[in-house]
């Protein structure tokens, strides 16, 4: 993917002037360079190499040239005006559902693609970027309802040739990661998406087509929105995708530019954020553009290997009941595409040992279940489960709603397991079971994870997201700033104001000028900045 560079030349002039007479002045000149000029093209070719760049470079005053300029104008306007819709959701509704083991414990939602629209039941995955669906299949999962226990209708297969709004993404497109392997920059862009599960992937061609969405607020009727997005025409799947996981496609919700969330934000349709909420009854909600409620807590995303490629967070410690454990700090990826939670091995050992100590009953094992710390229920029912909490920076706690999974035999609860496992990698994964019961907001613009307790209500039937526009840490009111003993309240600080006294450095600088004392001087420092977007 090409990198866009902004080069800025800052020219400062020092002007010493009386109010009626200029004592000292300087004039500088600099050449302004257009973003599609020959100079910029030569620089880009020398930096990135090649034929691919030259073939896609717009000829001056051509149709492509004007289309690129107008497209950039629209993007700038969208940045200034903000999002067109408060939030969006799939046209068939914001509801998500998990089918349990039948579909790999993931959450799914129905979406419509193309013209005429075709429906797909896609898995929701915050750990990847691409939206793909089975398409002109060479090797895909079975799509008939009779193959599954939970479906009342057949699943669909997409064909770009049958959609009047579809068009291939060329190898010269900046989102085509495999473009360098193409023989011709105009040929359709291939893709291969690999996943954590062993030998699991989807491959095919990238296309652009319409994703059908909806928006509504208050008592207004639902309005339909057609958004052009990049879709993977998944001709060949492998691994768990052939064994019941995401048989009808997968919606990547990651941070990559190819994500539908990036497309919606760039088009100005929705804010660069989304929320998911999962309930204990396997239902849930998804909203694009949702910023969450004012009462929510938050923590910042962290880079992984120097890049913000995943929703990584830093956990400062783990608490079991009232005991907060030492040396349980770790980093973790928040991933809705992972059903259960994994902790780094050392942290895992500390957590399960303390949990076992707190619950104080004999461990048991259940054939076929992957968890080590399982227990039988007593004749009096389910034993009291100790609370499990994650501590984030600034004392932001995240209490796991239900850290255990129940074991059923003949529809009766016979035991339970602490549903965490040791991670095979050097960071943890916070999966669906830990984030259930919360409205999880992935604020991609501010690079923050936000959360608040929620029953996953339908936000599209409300007057708007409650207190969405309030700042996370608002300034206190005058009453809140008052101290005890009848002392006067202190007025809030005003952003942007500075002290009227010149700094010591400024006084020293002026003294070194050795200017005549009788002159009334005004010191002005002016800056002229030229920026070139390449």
Automatic annotation (TrEMBL):
Its recorded name reads Peptidase A1 domain-containing protein
Query: From which residue to which does the signal peptide run?
Result: 1-25
Q: Which PROSITE patterns does the record match to this protein?
A: PEPTIDASE_A1
One Pfam annotation, family name? Answer: TAXi_C
Broad class of where this protein is predominantly found: membrane
The entry's localization annotation reads: Cell membrane
Q: What molecular function terms (GO) are annotated for this protein?
A: aspartic-type endopeptidase activity
């Amino acid at each position: 993917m090409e990198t866009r560079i902004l080069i800025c030349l800052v020219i400062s002039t020092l002007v010493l002037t009386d109010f009626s007479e200029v004592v000292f002045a300087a004039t500088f000149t600099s050449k302004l360079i257009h973003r599609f000029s020959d100079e910029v093209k030569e620089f880009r070719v020398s930096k990135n190499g090649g034929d691919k760049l030259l073939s896609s470079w717009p000829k001056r005053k051509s149709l492509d040239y004007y289309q690129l300029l107008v497209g950039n104008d629209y993007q700038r306007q969208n940045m200034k005006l903000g999002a067109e819709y408060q939030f969006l959701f799939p046209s068939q509704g914001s509801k998500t559902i998990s089918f349990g083991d039948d579909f790999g414990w993931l959450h799914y939602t129905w979406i419509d693609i193309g013209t005429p629209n075709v429906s797909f039941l896609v898995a929701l995955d915050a750990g990847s970027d691409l939206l793909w669906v089975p398409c002109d299949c060479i090797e895909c999962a079975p799509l008939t309802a009779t193959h599954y226990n939970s479906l009342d209708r057949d699943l669909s297969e997409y064909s770009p040739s049958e959609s009047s709004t579809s068009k291939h993404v060329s190898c010269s497109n900046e989102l085509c990661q495999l473009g360098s392997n193409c023989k011709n920059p105009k040929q359709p862009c291939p893709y291969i998406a690999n996943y954590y599960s062993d030998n699991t992937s989807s491959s095919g061609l990238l296309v652009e087509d319409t994703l059908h969405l909806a928006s509504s607020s208050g008592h207004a009727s639902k309005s339909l929105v057609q958004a052009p997005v990049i879709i993977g025409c998944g001709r060949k799947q492998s691994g768990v995708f052939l064994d019941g996981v995401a048989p009808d496609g997968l919606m990547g919700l990651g941070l990559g530019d190819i994500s539908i969330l990036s497309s919606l934000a760039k088009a100005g349709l929705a804010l660069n954020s989304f929320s998911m909420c999962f309930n204990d009854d396997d239902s849930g909600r998804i909203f694009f553009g949702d910023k969450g409620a004012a009462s929510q807590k938050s923590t910042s995303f962290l880079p992984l290997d120097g890049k913000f490629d995943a929703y990584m967070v830093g956990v400062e410690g783990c608490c079991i009941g009232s005991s907060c454990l030492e040396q349980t700090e770790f980093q973790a990826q928040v991933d809705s595409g992972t059903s259960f939670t994994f902790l780094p091995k050392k942290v895992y050992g500390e957590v399960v040992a303390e949990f076992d100590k707190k619950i104080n009953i004999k461990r048991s094992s259940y054939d076929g279940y992957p968890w080590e710390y399982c227990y039988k229920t007593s004749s009096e029912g389910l034993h009291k489960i100790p609370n499990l909490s994650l501590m984030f920076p600034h004392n932001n706690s995240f209490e796991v709603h239900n850290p255990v999974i129940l074991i059923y035999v003949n529809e009766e609860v016979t035991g339970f397991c602490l549903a965490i496992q040791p991670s095979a990698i050097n960071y943890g994964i916070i999966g669906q079971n830990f984030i259930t019961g919360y409205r999880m907001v992935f604020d991609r613009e501010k690079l923050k994870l936000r959360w608040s307790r929620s029953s996953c209500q339908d936000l599209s039937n409300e007057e708007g997201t409650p207190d969405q526009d309030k700042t996370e840490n608002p300034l206190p009111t005058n009453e809140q700033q008052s101290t005890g003993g009848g002392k006067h309240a202190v007025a809030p600080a005003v952003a942007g104001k500075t002290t009227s006294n010149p700094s010591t450095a400024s006084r020293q600088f002026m003294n070194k000028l050795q200017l005549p004392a009788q002159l009334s001087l005004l010191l002005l420092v002016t800056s002229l900045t030229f920026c070139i977007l390449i």
